[in-house]
Design goal:
The protein has a single domain, classed as Rossmann fold, CATH 3.40.50.720. It is 37% helix and 17% strand. The chain has helices at 12-23, 36-39, 44-47, 63-69, 85-88, 92-112, 149-152, 184-203, 229-238, 258-270, 289-299, 325-331, 339-350, 360-369, and strands at 3-7, 27-32, 54-57, 75-78, 119-125, 133-136, 140-142, 169-171, 207-212, 214-216, 243-245, 252-253, 255-257, 277-281, 287-288, 306-308. The strands form 5 sheets. Strands 3-2-1-4-5-9-14 form a 7-stranded parallel beta sheet, sandwiched between helices. It is globular.
């Protein structure tokens, strides 16, 4: 396989992946619409790949753009998607059109037209798990449903067992864990994954689904208020604004550095015998939101205030971090960057960039107007 199509190839993950694949001798074609929400701060990601790959400005919602991009391609790495759990809860049509209809166009072409595609990698998401995996002393392994508003409104943020009301112990989420997304974004990613896995078997095209955790690192958008908290908090601090942490600050996520994500994706691409395989891609470590905020404040040498408000966003999960046993055993993947080293590299990059306008309050007002923040 030499010719690789990357949808969303001018984005954060896609541009890093493109550069690495080109270095390895692959011929990369990019299909990307250069979405303003993602590329509004600059076109630096696009500029980093435009001269080393074939670039097609197009939209996955347009079947003709897919047809043009798929010509003579041996593999497809499907990254293009609308991302952001909160925004997905009120921009439902857009998220569904891009993530589901866009994927349907790909599969429709593969099912009905001549093509040379021999492998598909779909970028799935940890969001499809909803709440993570837990252990109850009385009831064993449990997969809690979405938290009840009546509990979070009282400041009861940690999850208890629905059967015995006892506290639960957080476990790493493996690929066999229950799939029950708590946002429209998560549902669309679940559908993407299921559609491609199903049609891969039907069409005899090997498929690998990679369930990315919270990806971060140099190059990610600093102006998109719907992206990850590292960018949001960084932009707040550098604009001289305080940070307001929701819930109690102990909610946690698995933050995985961009270089590790690229490495895992290339391993999945190059291992020939993989078919209908699903892998978590993460760091395998849970890091709390308060830890992130405190570390960023220290690294930026900021004197801005960090407060914990107790507010919460409907649909947010409490905890989730990846069990990496499967990807270690099958692909030999282990993350090389711990959070301290990764966030230091991220901060060093951010401090060399132009300070972006802080659009966070605008995004919060949008969520509040939709009743999604309490």
């Amino acid at each position: 396989m030499k010719n690789i199509l990357i949808t969303g190839g001018a984005g954060f993950i896609g541009s890093n992946l493109t550069r690495k694949l080109v270095d390895k001798g692959f011929k990369v074609t990019i299909l990307d619409n250069l979405s303003k929400q993602i590329h509004s701060d600059s076109l630096h990601l696009y500029l980093s790949v435009k001269d080393i790959a074939t670039f097609i400005k197009g939209d996955v919602r347009n079947k003709s753009d897919w047809q043009k991009a798929l010509k003579n391609q041996h593999a497809v790495i499907h990254l293009a998607a609308e991302t952001g759990t909160g925004q997905s809860m009120y921009e439902i049509s857009r998220y569904t059109e891009v993530n589901v209809l866009g994927t349907a166009h790909l599969l429709d072409i593969l099912a009905n037209e001549n093509h040379s595609v021999k492998k598909i990698i779909i970028a799935s998401s940890r969001s499809i798990y909803g709440e993570g995996k837990y252990f109850c002393e009385n009831d064993g392994v449990v997969y809690p449903n979405q938290r009840q508003d009546i509990c979070t409104a009282k400041g009861e943020f940690e999850i208890i067992c629905s059967k015995c009301s006892e506290p639960l112990k957080l476990l790493a989420t493996d690929e066999e864990s229950k799939i029950h997304p708590s946002s429209i974004y998560g549902i669309t990613k679940q559908l993407q994954e299921q559609m491609i896995l199903l049609m891969g078997k039907t069409l005899n095209i090997p498929v690998v689904a990679l369930r990315y955790q919270n990806v971060y690192g140099p190059g990610q958008s600093l102006s998109n208020p719907y992206t990850g908290i590292l960018s949001i908090f960084s932009t707040r601090l550098l604009n001289g604004n305080d940070i307001d942490i929701y819930e109690d600050g102990y909610q946690s996520r698995d933050f995985v550095f961009i270089d590790d994500v690229v490495s895992a994706t290339i391993l999945a691409l190059e291992k020939k015998e993989l078919n209908s395989q699903i892998f978590n891609v993460g760091s395998g470590v849970a890091t709390s939101v308060s830890e992130v905020a405190d570390l960023l404040k220290s690294l930026y040498n900021s004197n801005m205030k960090i407060s914990v408000s107790g507010k919460y966003r409907l649909g947010d999960i409490r905890h989730n971090y990846a069990d990496l046993s499967n990807i270690k055993d099958v692909l030999g993947f282990s993350p090389k960057f711990d959070f301290i080293s990764g966030i230091t590299l991220f901060v060093n990059w951010v401090t060399k960039q132009e300070v972006m306008p802080d659009k966070y309050e605008m995004s919060i007002r949008e969520l509040q107007s939709k009743g999604l923040i309490k």
